[in-house]
Amino acid sequence: MNLLRPLTWMLLLLPSAAFGEWTPVPGKPMTRWAKDVKPETPLPEYPRPQLVREKWQNLNGLWSYAITPLARPVIADEKQDRRGQIAPDAAGEPGEAPTKWDGEILVPFCPESALSGVGKTVGPNSRLWYRRTFNVPADWKGQRIMLNFGAVDWDCTVWLNGRKIGDHQGGYDPFSFDMTEAIRPDGDQELTVAVWDPSHLGVQPVGKQHTNPHGIWYTPVTGIWQTVWMEPVSKGAIDSVVTYTNFHKRMLNVRIKWSGSQQGDICKLTILDGDRIVAENGGTATASSGDLTIGVPADDLKPWTPESPFLYRVYATVERNGKQIDEVYSYAAFREIELKKDSAGVNRLFLNNKPVFQYGPLDQGWWPDGLYTAPTDAALKYDIEITKDLGFNMCRKHVKVEPARWYHWCDKLGLLVWQDMPNGDKNIGRDKPDIERTPASEAVYRKEWTAIVNATKHFPCIVAWVPFNEGWGQFKTNEILDWTRTLDSTRLIDGPSGWVDRKGGDMIDAHIYPGPGMLPIEDKRASVLGEFGGLGLPVDGHTWLDKNNWGYRSYETKQALNDAYSDLLTQIPVLIGQGLSAAVYTQTTDVEIEVNGFLTYDREVLKFDKDRVQKLHARLHEPPPSLKVLVPTSEQEPQAWRYTTDKPADDWMQPTFNDGAWKQGPGGFGTKGTPAAVIGTEWNTKDIWLRRTFELKSTDVDELSLRVHHDEDAEISINGRLVNSLKRFSTEYGPAAIASEIKSALKVGTNVMAVHCRQTGGGQYIDVGLNELRWKR
User: Fold this and answer.
1) I need a labelling partner for 716 at 20 to 30 A (CA). Which of 394, 419, 443, 776 fits?
2) Among residues 418, 572, 424, which one has the least CA distance to residue 495?
3) CA dist., res. 692 & res. 668, Å (int)
4) SS (H, E, C) 197-224
5) Residue 777 and residue 768: Cα distance in Å, rounded?
6) Cα-Cα-Cα-Cα dihedral of 101, 103, 109, 112, to 10°?
7) What does DSSP say about strands 553-554 and 354-355: parallel, antiparallel, or unpaired?
8) pLDDT for 3 beyond 50
9) Closest Cα partner for 485 from 450, 442, 434?
10) What angle do CA 311, 380, 197 make, to 5 degrees?
């Protein structure tokens, strides 16, 4: 192989097979890329860009399929939400393959998807079967033939020519079987696959799948959902090439693992900048399997950043007795992620020894036509391109693991990634102890998380591992966070994202809707906002359902949505100045009945004004403003207010209004038990009206920002002029925007702040302060 050949020149061998009639299942939204899906060549791209070999054969395409009932049902009612009820081995052995097939399915699209051509839910009480034939190229003889699966959800057994070649449990990690011994000398080879998936009713990682989709839970995915392919390899093949960086020592380290080697085998490594050789090194194998780490020092290494995502090409070979027996292409990036204190002593997320505020969307990775599987590689790439184009530098891959090509595009385009572990088993509430998993459930979690980390830790885009989301499947929290660091110590550990913090990991992570907000800074961890926003807008003709769609807060027009988003984003710099290190907005696209995406589910409509969003996002990377408290809240010390619960005269918010008959009491006002409330005066009626005065020596202010905690709707005025109308409720204290023209209402001397808060149910609370922001010019 030519050392300098680009990766895009790799040889692609497609299977020869007869393809029948195939059409997508009607009735669901389709993306623009669905028309490019061809039954003879679905997802034809090389599926493992981090370890490329020249010869391979894609086995995607039309397979026969059948759905058969289990010998004994594992659950009485699949629609009941009984998480963690089904054990990993509940379905038993697959038994004999069916003699009658239901039709054809387009692999790698799951049968529940439109692009599969099937459109059927398999369910926990059934087993899904696949069958196809293929030929092995004649020039592969004498080598080991590996059968590779990108991902199969969840329990998979594989036969070749009636001979079992392996089984696997895990819905998100790639796996391989050596099928050499089962291959017939010539002619057609018959491949059979059986899959069982208990979906959300099992203890295994499942993400957002649900047998009864509703709310934030989506259509289940069963079976093969990533590329199936085969390749010839020698005995002594390279299994993985992983790179990691010591930025301070200007060292790029490359670790190569292999299996089947012999004493004296020589591994050689070359690192290239384009066609220029940067470094060469090598080593000799001393065992039948093992690993070799090669350090490449260089003063002129180019850092990888979101702004300049430079990738070095890597070429590795194995020689035996002077003959080359394996060669692979890979790539490497010179980048390092760290938790460090900035010049002010605040913990920040440092990329290449510089603090970088990480901001991006919650990325679910679902598709209306392919569910877990993007219709084409161009579609997969598009989500990353539009994310970058909007000015994000990060995304959080939410309770799903993507095909390797998705991470490859993040590497090439420059998008930082926080990688979630897909949740499974039972849930816990915000104030509850960790769940107690069964030994089988814990073993499944540890096995699959280990496989996910090992399969994706090559990709430089990944900068943080997220073992738990909120209270979903959360167990032995700090033990799991520490154990995750043993799997990969080169990245940050978020622990957990939202809800039930146990003081572990590198980040203290808040989920606040709509927010924004943050938890107080700490000495050992960075404060991050793992989820916020969720502003919704259904777009006619581009929704999963015609009605009853859902968002955390919904709007009727694009203008209202953009204004609300602007209000949220103008508050983020205040939080950055207070120590916030990262934020994640919900979310990239609409998903099924959720309509809180930047894009519609079919990716046809961008619901936000791009220019406006880009400017808002760019401001997040400027030096944050300094903050001066003009009107304190009652968080630290009770503040005196005049108040009444009887409806006052219409001019109650004016400076000239006489509030002498109102009661006086300390803030905040509300009921005990309301989240994050600091009760100074109990308020338990439907409405409350508040007034207080504050003094200003000068009206030369740069920018104003409220600090407020409201439950529920609140209208806030200064000197009789409405400055903000807040809907629904917050769960924390946080900033709220004030339009710049409000500054003209201020005056030297005495000013009046007036607040009306209305309560409809549940907890209730109101407290308001006012801050001045000064930006560095």
Assistant:
1) 776
2) 418
3) 13
4) CCHHHECCECCCECCCCECCEECCCCEE
5) 29
6) -90
7) unpaired
8) no
9) 450
10) 115
Whole-angstrom distance, CA of residue 545 vs CA of residue 126? 27
Determine the 3-state secondary structure of 571 from DSSP: coil
Structural domains of the chain, with CATH: 7-233 (2.60.120.260), 337-624 (3.20.20.80), 628-774 (2.60.120.260)
Report which of 669, 204, 642 is spatially closest to residue 447, judged by C-alpha positions: 204
- DSSP symbol at 427: B
Please give the order of strands across the beta sheet that includes 175-178.
Answer: 57-58, 228-233, 144-149, 175-178
Q: DSSP strand E in 410-525: where?
A: 416-420, 462-466, 492-497, 507-512
Closest alpha carbon to 467 in 450, 489, 443: 450
Residue type, 46: Y
Contact by Cβ (8 Å): 94, 157: yes
* Run of H or E residues at 271: strand 266-273
Structure-token pair, residue 204: 């295994």
Token pair of 196, please?
Answer: 């069982």
β-strand partners of 464: 418, 492
397-430 residue pLDDT tens: 999 999 999 999 999 999 999 999 999 999 998 8
Closest by CA position to 128, among listed 94, 87, 151: 94
Pair of tokens at residue 65: 């399929």
Helix, strand, coil: what percent of the chain each, to 5?
15, 35, 50
Contact between residue 213 and residue 112 where contact means Cβ atoms under 8 Å apart:
no
Residue with tokens 């009107």: 631
**Cα–Cα dist 474/399, whole Å:** 13
- For residues 51 and 49, give the distance between their C-alpha atoms in angstroms, rounded to a whole number: 5
What is d(CA 517, CA 733) in angstroms, rounded to the nearest whole number?
7
* pLDDT tens digits, one per residue of 727-774: 888 888 888 888 778 888 999 999 999 999 999 888 999 999 999 988
Backbone angles phi, psi at 393, to 5 degrees: -115, 5
State both tokens at 656.
């000239």
Give Cα separations from 43 to 6, 18, 231, 339, 384 (angstroms): 20, 17, 17, 38, 18
Alpha-carbon distance 710 to 623, whole Å? 29
Strands 416-420 and 394-397, bridge-based pairing: parallel
> CA angle, 544 as apex, 540 and 550 as ends, to 5°?
80
Distances (CA, A) of 226 to 174, 239, 292, 557, 564: 9, 20, 30, 38, 38
Confidence of residue 289 (pLDDT cuts 50, 70, 90): low
Q: Which of 13-27, 487-501, 559-573 has the lowest mean pLDDT?
A: 13-27
Residue range 36-58, pLDDT digits in tens: 999 999 999 999 999 999 999 99
Q: How far apart are CA 72 and CA 593, in angstroms?
A: 34
